[in-house]
Amino acid sequence: MMALGDKTDDLAAGGPERHVPVLLNEVLEWLDPQPGEVMVDGTFGAGGYSRKLLERGATVVGIDRDPDAIAGGQELVAQSDGRLILVPGQFADLETHARASGFDGVDGVVLDLGVSSMQLDQAERGFSFLRDGPLDMRMEQAGPSAADVVNELPVRDLIRIIGLLGEEKRAPSVAHAIENARKEQPFSRTLELANLIEKVLGRSPKKAQIHPATRTFQALRIYVNGELHQAAQALGAAERILKPGGRLVLVSFHSLEDRIVKRFLQDRTKTRGGGSRHMPEEEVPPATFENLTRKAVEARDTETDANPRARSAKLRAGRRTEAPARELDIHVAGVPRLAAFHGLGG
């Protein structure tokens, strides 16, 4: 998995680099990799971050749940003189992967929470409402697909998923249209679903460039891949594996993920509790992070002009303190409770 904001260049993992992650310079600034340090790139993708970390002399544990990304990164592994360890798996398990790779503590963790542009550009992966392909959306290419979700979930659960994860105001209309259509014929193709949603919602003259299916497809992708659960669990894993002084850098692409990251850092950097003259000050556990970015860092105009996908990117960063890691309730962190479906939701 890699950033939405990738652009063409002349170097890449496994060959010519087709993809450079959004906010690359800013990621390197806040991550501050040093020779001999150990970094976890939890969303390896095409290796854009990892390559730069290797160039700075760091050892990298690269993680990706997409088998295509793991296969594509093998040439960079061969070129790394043993400093790149590429692991198939989920970034929520980054602590486990780092320890299994021989590291009980690491100096940095970087996570790019956007869906890969490589995945979006491949019609057969089923992420795009602009290209016809199987209604799939599975990053790991295993487990329930988006087609399974839209064909089998009760309409009340579809409404909640589309409304919460897609922030679609007309989620009930979309969900009921899906329910009616699937009685006639189950959905199997992306354009079948996209065309239905466009028929239901129409096109707004004020938002002509935004396809009406955008929010529903986002919701299905997030649900199918458990992206918010993954993000929250990865924050807890990073807190446990980072050494004192270790840096955590996160790039998100929509408000749901950024809200989780922001809430986590606010909680983990808090040094004083609330209180007033009528109420005693609340006891607060020792801060586990120092906040390095008081507000989200966004892409510069030069980057967004060259790469429109960078416009929604937000970067936040923190530095690990010596305080012990804490338990993390992902729902308190902002992950909504959703219908369980063959291992999804919850």
Main sheet properties: 8 strands, mixed
Q: How far apart are the first and last residues' alpha carbons, in Å?
A: 23 Å
What is the C-alpha radius of gyration, as a whole number of Å? Answer: 21 Å
Low-confidence stretches: 1-18
SS class: alpha/beta
Secondary-structure element order, as H and E?
HEHEHHEHEHHHHHHHEHEEHE
Q: Strand tally, please? A: 8
Mean pLDDT: 88
Q: Tell me the fraction of residues in β-strands, as a range.
A: 5-15%
Shape: globular
Q: Helical percent range?
A: 25-40%
- Number of DSSP helical runs: 14
Structure in words:
By secondary structure, the protein is an alpha/beta fold. Strands 1, 2, 3, 4, 5, 6, 7 and 8 form an eight-stranded mixed beta sheet that branches. The N terminus is likely disordered.
Short description:
The chain is α/β, with parallel strands linked by helices and 346 residues long.
SSE layout and pairing:
Elements: H1 24-31, E1 38-41, H2 48-55, E2 59-64, H3 67-72, H4 74-79, E3 84-88, H5 94-100, E4 106-112, H6 117-121, H7 146-152, H8 155-165, H9 171-184, H10 190-201, H11 214-225, H12 227-241, E5 242-252, H13 255-268, E6 289-291, E7 297-298, H14 301-306, E8 314-320
Parallel strand pairs: 1-2, 1-4, 2-3, 4-5
Antiparallel strand pairs: 5-8, 6-8, 7-8
Question: Key terms for this structure?
Answer:
alpha/beta, 8-stranded mixed beta sheet, 346 residues, disordered N terminus
